[in-house]
Design brief:
The complex is a heterodimer of chains A (101) and B (88). Chain A has one domain (2-86). Helices cover 78% and strands 0% of the residues of chain A. Chain A has helices at 2-23, 27-53, 57-86. Chain A is elongated and about 60 Å long. Chain B is an all-alpha fold and 88 residues long. Chain B has helices at 3-24, 28-53, 57-83. In chain B, α1 packs antiparallel against α2. The chains are: A mainly alpha (101), B mainly alpha (88). The A-B interface holds A 4, 7, 10-11, 14-15, 17-18, 21-22, 27, 30-31, 34, 37-38, 41-42, 45-46, 49, 52-53, 58, 61-62, 64-65, 68-69, 72-73, 75-77, 79-80, 82-84, 86-87, 89 and B 3, 6-7, 10-11, 14-15, 17-18, 20-21, 27, 29-30, 32-34, 36-37, 40-41, 43-44, 47-48, 51, 56, 59, 62-63, 66-67, 70, 73-74, 77-78, 80-82.
Amino acid sequence: MIAYLFIFLGLVFMFFGTLGIIRFPDIYTRLQTSSKCDTAGAIALLVGLILKQGLDSFSLRILIILVFLLLTNPVASHAIARSAAIRGIKPWRKKKNVKGG
Amino acid sequence: MTAVTIIITVLGVTASLALYRVIFGPTSWDRLIAVNLISSKVIMIMVAAAVFFERRIYLDVALVYAIIGFVSIIAISKFLEGEGTNKK
């Protein structure tokens, strides 16, 4: 039962990460929601699958995939952000209202 | 409606929604972020299918797909950094 709770949490993280990809206005904000979706959603969903499977060689292999994803996803996000910053992409700012404020 | 159907359907629908950013993204980095996200979701689909259908070989496919996706993302972002464009 707790395995399905973790899997549901992972699916919720995945859905809101994709919503942020579609709705946010800038590269860096989109990268932030994408990184949350990759790490938090992957941790929750794969831990749920490990708990459902039980402890054997099958779930050890899932654990290896989880550790590999946790090592490589922040590196990939940092490489994308660094290349965008080197090419001079400015962060998004809110446009000022005409009537002040 | 079993659990594996719900998992694969939700992940597939969200991957299709992220495909919007691949097609209409303003810059190349938006497309790269969306491709990274779709690759991660496909890995999740493979692991879920391996657990629920008890096919052990899908886990090896998921691991190799993760390695190839990581290398391609690093290579394309280094390419977009300015070596491959017409910079005067």
